[in-house]
Specification:
With about 400 residues, the chain is mainly beta. The chain has 2 domains: about 220 residues, Porin (Beta Barrel); about 170 residues, Beta Barrel (Porin). It has 4 helices and 18 strands. The strands form 3 sheets. The protein has an 8-stranded antiparallel beta barrel. It has an 8-stranded antiparallel beta barrel with strand order 11-12-13-14-15-16-17-18. A hairpin with a 4-residue loop joins strand 8 and strand 9.
């Protein structure tokens, strides 16, 4: 792997590490872990391609605070990690380098022994992409055994979630063990993009250089007042772009408008209801991709409207969670699958059986994150999906009333 491919993630990790260390000096721990796992073969391409395990290593720096919102989550660790992963076929899938911040939420804690839930999101760089295998397309067909149709771009989003445990050995050293899900994809910004899902086990060692300072700070008591339980109304405008099919080689605009009402139910959790208006420019006629039957160009085919139930964690200025929605207006539902729609036999209701490989269906989800910049203004980031299939990434701004 060349120096050029490594230098950007390395510099970013060093910068963030130094910045975070300045904020939490004297309360820093270091963790190194070996990774062994497997790629979930969720389509025919990956079944033919993956021929070995996922292997790799991760180095992380963690900090702990007892102030403010941390108390409501039993004093979680904040972490910053860099990972290197062999993706199960080095020659074709290549390797991934990931840099991501995360939060490690304690579930069980007894002294220094703990069982935790870890969740994080960041960026990954994948060394092999589909662009290196375009010559393998023959008569409009991709040779599944020889090409990386799972990843369409070098830069991708990286997700990490799972459970872990820490077993103390001395005041300064602990054994660590993790098992979780890791995912890398670009949210359809560049196709093909089926994404890579991994289930990985971690085993490593954690070093606490200043145990006495960490222990004394943890034993101090900081009172964190209850957060206000007032109902909040939020309006979010988002945009972005995505591709649909590698042979069409086109990029389309996407956008969304959200109107949401939230009620905090605890100091760390809020529930909401939302109305979602989506614009997806991929639904135009004349494309080579035969999943949606579009006989003519209609603006309304690019519009969908739904309502969603929203669950979010509250961590100071940051809120993050998952939204689950159902389409109330969706002209695409009777235009998929392609052959049935072309025959004119579809007349679907609000909820209907469907296969996600053939159509989007009536159910959608959004992984959502919002960060308050001022008392009212926030930046937002979302990943909209239909079951396990990503539709697009939303970049937006919003206002909280």
């Amino acid at each position: 792997m060349s120096l050029k491919k490594n230098i950007v993630p390395f510099i970013l990790f060093c910068f963030l590490t130094q910045f975070a260390a300045a904020q939490f000096s004297g309360n820093t721990t270091y963790k190194g872990e070996y990774i062994y796992g497997s790629v979930w073969k969720h389509n025919k391409h990956l079944e033919n391609l993956v021929n070995g395990p996922v292997t790799g290593a991760e180095f992380a720096v963690e900090w702990q605070s007892v102030k403010g919102w941390h108390r409501h989550f039993n004093y979680p660790y904040l972490g910053l990690a860099v990972s290197w992963l062999n993706l199960g076929n080095r020659d074709t899938l290549g390797a991934a380098i990931a840099v991501y911040p995360y939060v490690n939420f304690p579930i069980v804690r007894y002294g220094r022994f703990s069982v935790n839930f870890k969740s994080g999101v960041g960026l990954s760089y994948v060394t092999k992409t589909f662009n290196e295998f375009r010559d393998e397309v023959v008569n409009g067909t991709l040779k599944l055994d020889n090409s990386n149709a799972a990843i369409g771009s070098h830069m991708n989003v990286y997700f990490a979630a799972g459970f872990n445990a820490e077993f103390p050995v001395t005041d300064h050293f602990s054994f660590t063990a993790d098992y979780g899900w890791n995912h890398t994809s670009n949210g359809m910004i560049r196709v093909p993009n089926s994404g890579i899902n991994m289930f990985n086990a971690f085993l490593g060692l954690k070093y606490t250089p200043n145990y006495s300072a960490r222990r004394n700070e943890y034993l101090q008591y900081y009172y964190a007042p209850d957060i206000p339980r007032d109902i909040a109304v939020e309006l979010t405008v988002s945009g972005g772009c995505r591709q649909l099919y590698y042979l069409d080689d086109k990029t389309f605009p996407i956008g969304s408008l959200q109107a949401d009402v939230y009620k905090p139910l605890t100091n760390f959790y809020r529930m909401g209801l939302g109305a979602d208006l989506f614009y997806d420019g991929v639904f135009e006629s004349g494309l080579r991709y035969k999943r949606t039957y579009l006989a003519s160009e209609k603006f309304l085919n690019k519009i969908r409207f739904g309502v969603s139930w929203q669950n979010e964690l509250i961590m100071g200025r940051l809120t993050a969670g998952i939204h689950a929605g159902i389409y109330l207006y969706n002209p695409i539902k009777n235009l998929e699958p392609y052959n049935e729609a072309k025959a004119g036999t579809l007349d679907k209701g609000l909820i209907y059986p469907y296969k996600i490989d053939d159509e989007d269906g009536w159910f959608y989800t959004r992984l959502s994150g919002k960060y308050l910049l001022t008392k009212h203004l926030y930046a937002s980031l979302g990943l909209k999906t239909h079951l396990q299939k990503a539709e697009f990434i939303e970049w937006g701004m919003g206002y909280r009333f």
